[in-house]
Amino acid sequence: MGGLDFIVIAIIAANVLISFKGFNDYEFFNRYKFEISSIKGGDKIRILSSAFLHVDTTHLFVNMLTLYFFASSVVSFVGTGGFLLIYFGSLALGNLLSLQFHKNEPYYTAVGASGAVVGVLYAAILLQPDMMLGLFFIIPIPAYVFGIGYLFYSIWAMKARRDNVGHDAHFGGAMGGYFITLLLSPWVLQEHLLMVVLLALPIVVLFVLQKMGKL
């Protein structure tokens, strides 16, 4: 078993074990979920712990499957240490952005590894922008088109607030994957400059809208 296999399986195992503990122990779930009032009250561990809890088995399965598919691509470029930095950096940035956007909503709660997983996905897109993804596992689509489209969709969903999905955490995770990858692999700026600029557009739009009070 290689280093990548061990690291990825260890993270997946931690997610599975902690999530299943939360499925069967409501008190445990409530103690470690992302909750604005508790975090602002000093319970900072929730920023990390909430990313190892999930709502149900489908939520857990989709996140872990996505992580497994894209982790190898990221590790092959930035190594195991770089992968871990992207994973946990994206996790932190995703939840910190969520904290910022919901700071005046004391009862707002969330769980899931989506921020970290989306960060890994965006790192993979930056490192290999010519890769093809299967939309709905069927329709082939260039990775960078998916990346740009997904972030613009996330902005729309954050404005609409029509579901209980933490789109802001997804967006923050994508930003983490974007910026940390550029720091770890500055060659991307030379070899994939157009894609770097294009993928930055929704990030700029998000902060312009927030500055204008539109979110």
From TrEMBL:
<dbReference type="GO" id="GO:0008233">
    <property type="term" value="F:peptidase activity"/>
</dbReference>
<protein>
    <submittedName>
        <fullName>Rhomboid family intramembrane serine protease</fullName>
    </submittedName>
</protein>
<comment type="similarity">
    <text>Belongs to the peptidase S54 family.</text>
</comment>
<keyword id="KW-0378">Hydrolase</keyword>
<keyword id="KW-0812">Transmembrane</keyword>
<feature type="transmembrane region" description="Helical">
    <location>
        <begin position="68"/>
        <end position="94"/>
    </location>
</feature>
<dbReference type="Pfam" id="PF01694">
    <property type="entry name" value="Rhomboid"/>
</dbReference>
<feature type="domain" description="Peptidase S54 rhomboid">
    <location>
        <begin position="44"/>
        <end position="186"/>
    </location>
</feature>
<feature type="transmembrane region" description="Helical">
    <location>
        <begin position="6"/>
        <end position="24"/>
    </location>
</feature>
<dbReference type="InterPro" id="IPR050925">
    <property type="entry name" value="Rhomboid_protease_S54"/>
</dbReference>
<keyword id="KW-0645">Protease</keyword>
<keyword id="KW-0472">Membrane</keyword>
<feature type="transmembrane region" description="Helical">
    <location>
        <begin position="193"/>
        <end position="209"/>
    </location>
</feature>
<dbReference type="GO" id="GO:0006508">
    <property type="term" value="P:proteolysis"/>
</dbReference>
<feature type="transmembrane region" description="Helical">
    <location>
        <begin position="133"/>
        <end position="157"/>
    </location>
</feature>
<dbReference type="InterPro" id="IPR022764">
    <property type="entry name" value="Peptidase_S54_rhomboid_dom"/>
</dbReference>
<keyword id="KW-1133">Transmembrane helix</keyword>
<dbReference type="InterPro" id="IPR035952">
    <property type="entry name" value="Rhomboid-like_sf"/>
</dbReference>
<feature type="transmembrane region" description="Helical">
    <location>
        <begin position="106"/>
        <end position="127"/>
    </location>
</feature>
